[in-house]
Amino acid sequence: MKLYYAPGACSLSPHIVLREAGLTFELEQVDNKEKKTKSGQNFWDVNPKGQVPVLELDEGGRLTEGPVIVQYLADKKPGSGLVPAYGTSERYRVQEWLNFTTSELHKTFGPIFRPTTPEEFKMISKENLAKRFDWLDRELAGRQYLMGEKFTIADAYLFTVVRWSPRIEVDLGKWPNLKAYVDRVAARPKVREALQAEGLIQPAAVS
Ligand SMILES: N[C@@H](CCC(=O)N[C@@H](CS)C(=O)NCC(=O)O)C(=O)O
Questions:
Q1: Helix (H, G, I), strand (E, B) or coil at 133
Q2: Has this prediction a pTM greater than 0.85?
Q3: Residue spans of beta strands (DSSP E) within the chain
Q4: Spacing, Cα 111 to ligand 1 middle (Å)
Q5: Which of 43, 98, 135, 204 has the fewest CB atoms found within 10 Å of its own CB?
Q6: What residues line ligand 1, using a CB cutoff of 6 Å?
Q7: Alpha carbon of 53 to ligand 1 centroid (Å)
Q8: What is the mean pLDDT of residues 7-19?
Q9: Closest C-alpha to ligand 1, atom 1
Q10: Residue 204: CB partners within 8 Å, gap ≥ 6?
Q11: Contacts with 201 (C-beta within 8 Å, 6 or more apart), sequence order
Q12: What is the position in ligand 1's atom list of the atom closest to the CA of 32?
C-alpha cells in the first residue's frame, strides 16, 4: 500500500493507523500547493479531488476520504483492536466519532487556515470550534480514549485534527481534558513514529 500525505495534514490519521496496525506501507509526500508529489507525479492525476489522504491499494485502485481509509486499514488487522467489528454497536460508536470529527471539526478548521477567508468568518468558525471543544472536554473527563481504555481509529483522527489548534491560535489549555488527551495520544510510540516520519517532531536524543 502507498499513502499519499502532506506533513501534518489530515493524512496523518491514516498514517498513524498504518503504524499502529503494523501494516507494510510506503509513503509519498505531496506538495498540496503545487499539486505535485515528491517523485514528480501530477497529484491531480492521483486524486482528481486534489486532496490528501489517498491510499493506493495492493489489490489495485485508490481509496480516498480519511474516515473510510482508516476503517479499511483497521479492518485488515482485526486483532489490533483499532476498530470494533462490523455489525457491533461499538462500530457505530466509532463511526459516530469519525463523522463528528470530519463534519464538525475538520471542515471547520479548513477555512480558518485559508488566507483569503474574511476575518469575521474565521472568528465565527473559531467560536463554533470552541463550543465543540467545550462538549468534547466534558466527554473526555475520566476517559483515556474516545472509546474508553482502548485507542481506536477515532482517536487517530481526532488527535490529528485537534493538534492543529495552536496553528490557529486556539489555546487548548482552556480544555484540560482535551489537552491531556492530545498529549496522551502524542506520547504513543507509533504516533511519535508517524510525527517523526512527517518531520513534525525531532527524534528523542539518545544519551
Ligand atoms: N473529505 C476529505 C477531505 C480531505 C482534506 O480536506 N484534505 C486536505 C488536507 S487536511 C487537503 O488535501 N487540502 C488541499 C486542497 O483542498 O487543495 C477527507 O476526509 O479525506
A1: helix
A2: yes
A3: 2-5, 26-31, 36-37, 54-56, 62-64
A4: 12
A5: 204
A6: 9-10, 32, 50-53, 65-66, 102
A7: 7
A8: 98
A9: 65
A10: 192
A11: 192, 195
A12: 14
Residue of 3, 10, 116 with the most ligand 1 atoms within 8 Å of its CB, for mutation:
10
| DSSP code at position 17 | H
User: Which ranges constitute the DSSP H helices of the chain?
Assistant: 12-21, 43-46, 66-76, 89-100, 107-113, 119-139, 153-162, 176-186, 189-197
Task: From residue 144, give the alpha-carbon distance in Å to each of 79, 139, 147, 177.
Answer: 20, 11, 8, 10
pLDDT in tens, 132-149: 999 999 999 999 999 999
The grid coordinates of residue 164 equal 492543529
> CA–CA separation, 13 vs 11, rounded Å?
5
Atom of ligand 1 nearest to the CA of 65: 20
- The mean pLDDT value of the chain amounts to 97
Strand pairing class (2-5; 54-56): antiparallel
Query: What is the predicted pLDDT for the residue at 205?
Result: 66
CB-based contact 4:37 (threshold 8 Å)? yes
Closest residue by CA, ligand 1 atom 13: 51
Cβ-Cβ contacts under 8 Å for 41 (sequence gap 6 or more): 28
